[in-house]
């Protein structure tokens, strides 16, 4: 995960949180989070990079629609990142639990 961009990590998290999402569903989730449009020219090359790195599998739903799922390695990487973050981030801020 250390060599991924923040955008690529966000892609992994969205894929992990949805059931076999297609590109448009991923795009919509990220647009809601970022509060701005995500262009196809940014989305799909980054998804392809995650596939090439073995973190995401790409399947075909029909001739026009692909779906994405995390690989076992992708799930391990997310868990490792979460564990690493937990070493540095205390969930309590000003006495408020998240």
From TrEMBL:
Coiled coil: none annotated. InterPro entries: Tscrpt_reg_PadR_N (IPR005149), WH-like_DNA-bd_sf (IPR036388), WH_DNA-bd_sf (IPR036390). Pfam families: PadR. Residues 11-79 form the Transcription regulator PadR N-terminal domain. It comes from the Archaea. This is PadR family transcriptional regulator.
